[in-house]
Amino acid sequence: MISYILRRLLLAIPTLLVVALIVFFLVRLIPGDPAQVMLGEGADPAAVAALHKQLGLDQPVPVQFVAWLGHVSSGDLGASIITGEPVTRLILSRAETTAVVVVISVGLATVIAILAGMYAAWRRGSGGDLAVMGAASFILAVPSFWLGLLLLLIFGVWLHWLPVVGYVPFREDAWAALLFLILPIVTLTISESGVLIRMMRSSAIDVLRLDYVTHARAKGLAERTVLARHVFPNAFAPTLTLVGLTLGRLFGGIAVIETVFTLPGLGRLMVTGVLSRDYPVVQGCLLFTAVIYVVVNLIVDLLYPLFDPRVTVE
């Protein structure tokens, strides 16, 4: 097990190097000059040139990349061009909020997908199956930001049950933080459950056709036991893969949800970095997201044998 984990981590190093290379050069294709953004449109060219030298932007791009990679290898992602704050501290402070929303939302969406998908597969072709698949298709068709705005309008503006804007960290007031996160979590849970339900249903239907399920039923096992002990473990593996991909994607891709609910998360930090041409912040956020992808995929691979005995780590 340990040797497998070490091999996977070693294989991830070239992937992260390629990601770092692509990110570093793509960020510099964004129109605009960080020094010009900081000093304003009417800034003196001499002042802009001096700031370029101060920030190291006067060096050739390959030289900048090698210098940045050297700092990254030692755990230093640099400092924000705009605020001067260390990028690592910025990412960790914002990632806390994003992690709470993403992990809880994907966890709830997974539970909903398992229950709804298994039921739809078991009752394939029935009214319940059509209702579940219709709801999943409707969810896939609804943009997450529109759903978030609708929930804000109903529960925040009309009913006044939940706050509309703002955020309080958990360390300051856990109850207030929870109230601010309810609507984002509900929005993301609904938005992500649609594709997971469809995947779970499809996998469960394939498993229900196998001979060992027929044999289990022929032995007189209760239908609930057949579904729980024989169908679910083998049908959940493809959905688990999708859950892992969803977790990695959302860590850097919920900027819209965070903007709708004014949450200070990782997605908004990345968008702000792009708009302000803050190269270290954008590079750090994207590299952090790539690391999350690698770690989540490794965890998913390690969990596979728990659900499918045919799959082993070796």
CA radius of gyration: 24 Å
Q: Count of DSSP helices?
A: 13
Structural class: mainly alpha
The amount of helix comes to: over 70%
Tell me the span between the first and last alpha carbons: 8 Å
> Low-confidence segments, ≥5 residues, pLDDT <50?
none
Describe the protein in words.
- The model has no long low-confidence stretch (mean pLDDT 86).
- Helix 5 (87-122) runs antiparallel to helix 6, helix 5 packs parallel to helix 13 (279-307) and helix 7 (144-158) crosses helix 8 (174-208).
- The chain starts with a helix and ends in a 7-residue tail after the last helix.
- The chain is 77% helix and 0% strand.
- The chain contains 13 helices and no strands.
- The protein is mostly helical and 314 residues long.
- The relative contact order is 0.14.
Summarize the structure.
The protein is an all-alpha fold and 314 residues long. It has helices spanning 2-27, 34-39, 45-55, 61-73, 87-122, 127-141, 144-158, 174-208, 211-218, 223-253, 255-260, 266-275, 279-307.
What secondary-structure arrangement, pairings included, does this model have?
Elements: H1 2-27, H2 34-39, H3 45-55, H4 61-73, H5 87-122, H6 127-141, H7 144-158, H8 174-208, H9 211-218, H10 223-253, H11 255-260, H12 266-275, H13 279-307
Helix pairs in contact: 1-13, 5-6, 5-8, 5-10, 5-13, 6-8, 7-8, 8-10, 9-10, 10-13, 12-13
Key words describing this protein structure:
13 helices; mainly alpha
